[in-house]
Design goal:
5 strands, mainly alpha, globular
């Protein structure tokens, strides 16, 4: 009976959202087909509407142009001229739909206590229903779709259309604050999908972004010029790469573009040090969400741009493309500042593996291997890091056990830092939640007198204190061990009015208390 209730609750909770994200993924896949086909050719994404390339007949949305179903109904042929359509269109739509569904299942359906899978998203996703976590889900899913489009275009043309990473970046700057405003912290957790920032880092990031806006305005006004503006003059025939002789000169042009950004970073840091406490306390959740996205964009774009400039100055030819800069900037805007650094470290190994694999295939088939730009390796490293994050955590603990790994958590305010961790009551934390407040009374009644506390935070409110277990309220002789519950588990838990707890003697788990 209990198993039936669990399955029933899980299906009722997740099945409607799973169907929705599957359909959303199919529609995004259909749009990705348009982007991959039209952007490299300089065509508009809106006009003309989708049509048969042979006879020019317009494909109607609810008939021929319906994602996945339209291709199957037409059996891959035009209704009018009977010319066949490539099955790649349908496979991209189906692949995107399955990818969106997989992402939903990993982040929402599985409990955060599930080995490996539970560590991919982290505890924050287990605290949220889809209704309050949709901005973060949209950002990650759109990032994966954009990486697919950029990979295909870059592999074919050795260029990355700037429209794709810029769209993802702007979307991140809009949706992360929205996520900060609507997210539910159950129970009062300081955990977050990306690393948070304190006031000092927020002002540094805001100053850097103000510099980005200033540089873009100077570029639009003609005060600054585009670097490599005469690159096409050195192209021969249909080649996409040229032997450009003025790479070092163009780095001076790019440095002038970066100068307002550097000044903004420095000025923001100076203002931050003037704040009380040096700006080390955390701002509101909305500002931390925005600041984390800002600093992620600057971190991702900055590391690639630095390698590009030093490499070009050293070798005399363009080391990395600006498309890679914008790609990693978009990744950082969505995933935060730490992930782009790891991705940039992983990507060269994937590139080396590609070269070795192509060399082996060339020897066997006696054909020339295919050259691949660096963008696809960055995209593959991003996907690998996201879905293999538990392996990164394990590797970090083995390789650098004395250095704490940056956590995906908000920075608590100064008053929360000054409160002793072992005696912190739920009312002493910064990010209140009405769901928690109403549930706390119910849990106390269910425990007959309140002999046990409730988990106050799933991550330590003091970043200087690193622990491998949740912060819990201390009660004499016993420690409440809840683990981490997903949204479905909490719904089932409340339906039975019996919190999932286990009485564990403190001496068996963590001697001396929390």
């Amino acid at each position: 009976m209990l198993l039936a209730n669990v399955l029933s609750t899980t299906l009722l909770t997740h099945l409607p959202w799973a169907v929705f994200v599957f359909c959303l993924g199919a529609c995004v896949g259909s749009f990705i087909n348009v982007v991959v086909h039209r952007l490299p050719r300089g065509m508009s994404l809106a006009m003309p509407p989708s049509r048969c390339e042979t006879c020019g007949a317009r494909l109607r949305f609810f008939r021929e142009n319906l994602p996945i179903i339209g291709w199957l109904v037409l059996r891959g042929r035009c209704r009018y001229c009977r010319q066949s359509f490539s099955p790649a269109y349908m496979f991209v739509e189906l692949g995107m739909a399955l990818l969106f569904l997989l992402l939903y299942v990993v982040l929402f359906w599985f409990s955060t206590r599930t080995p490996w899978i539970g560590g991919i998203g982290g505890e924050w996703w287990g605290m949220q229903p889809f209704a309050t976590a949709w901005p973060a889900f949209i950002l990650i899913s759109f990032l994966l779709a954009g990486l697919w489009a950029m990979t295909i275009i870059d592999a074919r043309t050795f260029t990355i259309p700037i429209q794709i990473p810029m769209f993802i970046t702007v979307l991140a700057f809009v949706l992360w604050p929205v996520q900060g405003a609507i997210a539910s912290s159950w129970p009062r957790a300081v955990s977050w999908p990306i690393p948070g920032v304190n006031w000092w880092w927020f002002l540094v990031a805001a100053g850097g972004m103000l510099g980005v806006v200033t540089s873009r305005l100077l570029l639009a006004m003609g005060v600054l010029r585009w670097s490599f503006a005469d690159y096409e003059d050195y192209l021969q025939g249909d080649e996409s790469l040229a032997d450009y002789p003025h790479g070092r000169r163009e780095m001076g042009v790019e440095f002038l573009y970066l100068l307002p950004i550097i000044i903004g970073l420095v000025v923001g840091g100076i203002i931050g040090t003037m704040l009380p406490g040096g700006g080390l306390d955390g701002p509101s959740r909305v500002l931390q969400a925005l600041g984390g996205s800002f600093i992620g964009y600057l971190s991702g774009a900055g590391i690639v741009w630095a390698v590009r400039m030093f490499g070009t100055l050293g070798f005399g030819r363009e080391a990395m493309g600006l498309g890679d800069v914008h790609l990693m900037g978009a990744v950082g805007a969505v995933l935060g500042w730490f992930d782009p650094l790891v991705i940039f470290f992983i990507a060269p190994f994937l590139g080396l593996g590609w070269v070795l694999a192509c060399g082996l295939v060339s020897r066997i088939t006696r054909s020339q291997g295919r050259e691949l730009p660096y963008g696809p390796h960055l995209a593959a490293a991003t996907v690998l890091l996201f879905f293999c994050r538990p392996a990164l955590v394990d590797a970090w603990q083995v390789l650098v056990p004395t250095i704490p790994m940056p956590q995906r958590a908000l920075v608590p305010p100064e008053d929360s830092k000054s409160t002793p961790t072992s005696t912190m009551a739920p009312s002493g934390l910064q990010f209140p939640d009405l769901i928690f407040e109403s549930t706390r009374a119910l849990s106390a009644d269910s425990l007959n007198g309140g002999d046990f506390g409730m988990v106050a935070s799933s991550a330590s409110p003091d970043p200087s204190v690193t622990r491998n277990f949740p912060v819990s309220m201390w009660q004499p002789g016993w420690l409440l061990d809840t683990g981490y519950m997903s949204h479905s588990e909490r719904m089932l838990n409340h339906a039975h009015e019996a919190p999932v707890v286990s009485r564990t003697p403190c001496s068996d788990r963590h001697p001396g208390g929390v």
